[in-house]
Amino acid sequence: MVVAVDSVSFSYRELKVLKDVTMNTKKGEILCLLGPNGSGKSTPLKCILGVLKPQKGRIMINGGEISSFNQLELAKLIGYVPQMVEQTFPLTVFETILIGRLPHLGWTPKQSDVEAVRYAMRLLGIENLAWKNLSELSRGQRQKALLAMALAKEPSILLLDEPTSNLDLNSQLEVMDVIRDIVKDGKTAIVALHDLNLALRYADRVVVMKNGRVIADGKPAEVLKEDIIERVYGVKAIVKNECELRYVVPLGRCEND
Amino acid sequence: MYSLLVGSSRLDCRTVVEALIGKGAEKAQAIIWNIRLPRVLMATVAGAGLALSGLITQTVLRNPLASPFTLGISSAAAFGAALAIVSGVCGVTLKTALGGFQITNFYVVIISAFVFSLIATFAILTISKLKGMSPAVTVLAGLAILFLFSAATSLIQYFGTIEQVAAIIFWLFGSLSKTTWISLEVMSFVFFICLFASYRCCWKLNALYLGDEIAKSLGVDAKRLRLVGMITASLLTATAVSFLGVISFVCLVSPHIARLVLGSDHRYLIPSSCLVGACLLLTADTASRTMFLPLTLPVGILTSFFGVPLFLYLIVKRGENVWW
User: Fold this and answer.
1) Could you give the domains of chain A?
2) What percentage of chain B's residues is helix, strand, coil (to nearest 5)?
3) Residue B323 belongs to a domain
4) pTM of the shown model
């Protein structure tokens, strides 16, 4: 297991956010975390990142407990993209992605650092935005820039918090394709998502959460069924299969919800 | 060099150069070495130091309006100075019939101002630490401290004699006239240590632009960096304010001017902010000594007069690309 979350509980003071959560991912796998707003999808990502310390349970990375790694080792292993960054001071896209190389950087960026930044921009098709200020970009473009920043340090584990939430249809597929290609090269991605169709299309494994608990864990086609969608989201839906693609069509909210 | 040339005593270029290399008239040497040179160097070092402290505060709190002055560190220093003046330990005496005054024991004022600015820093950091070093809490705690010490200073002024109140107000204006070689040495020592420390953290400070979580994913402990940054900025400000009085504008505006010209990367922003701060304070001080000869205006007033037009010009000129 590359990342193993074992019986983790976390609460903000009185508010229990994670209750006995267990999930594992292997090399070369995209794990999608699904669930309604406030179900605790982002919290496991922050626990793996080390920003939040679980009160119970343990988190293992490559077989070692997370506390046995020092900050720099973890920084080289894990790339993280939050939902959004509030920017206070001007920063160009190039500068932002270069900051992403921090764990590898010396005092002055080397040619290899600049190449890594260029490569990440090329992957996401944002080379033409290199010298634009982040604040001048649309939210979708900014999200791509942040993903490029996480990719630039070449991490083996990607933690992505709703990386497609601000993107148009084309860019959603573009970003998920990039993530899939990277993961195929022996990396691992844990992605919190809202879009069930993207999860059905790209995930190797899904974990469905509600009220801080894991409701279902398994292959997308096995887990994302009408009854689970109704139980978790309170939405009646049908899951169809066409052109070798499974997709979810929501029909309407359940009356008792 | 121009700053060395001008002043209430007229010295020509040749005399100044001779005095600098230890030749020429004794009077000119005394003016240059004892009065003008330490003052010019102090304006440079203190201006750079204040700019650096402003820059660090703005970055670690991710707030363009933050500076050690808006966090109440200078108002605490002002309270310390006012307390020392009114309590009589430093001996304010009436010098002339026109209401001039003299503070016989100026070091007591400096030490008192310094101690109180450190107390304010400690209070702000303690409150922030209780709330996990959140930038918003630090800014709000600083504002509370600012108002508390301002009220306390007003209270002290209310009970002071006319000479004491005049001495407090003069101190509040900020001035480089009391500069000595010792104060210059202390200021330089603190400045270069803080400059070295912050320069080592350039990339970490850059990472803080993107928020605590991303910083953490890049191996930067944002809370610790914020704590160390605040201590560094406070130490710089406490030292500068204790020696010079309240010179607030340099601190807030120099980093913005440098950022508008060279961008946000701390590798360039730290030296450029320091340079802008040094130039601003030196220009303001030179003007304060020459505009109304033989009268010397308090430099604190003039820094704003020089800084604001430059700042506004840059905002208007770079209108489309600024971040607010």
Assistant:
1) 3-224 (3.40.50.300), 225-257 (no CATH)
2) 75, 0, 25
3) no
4) 0.87
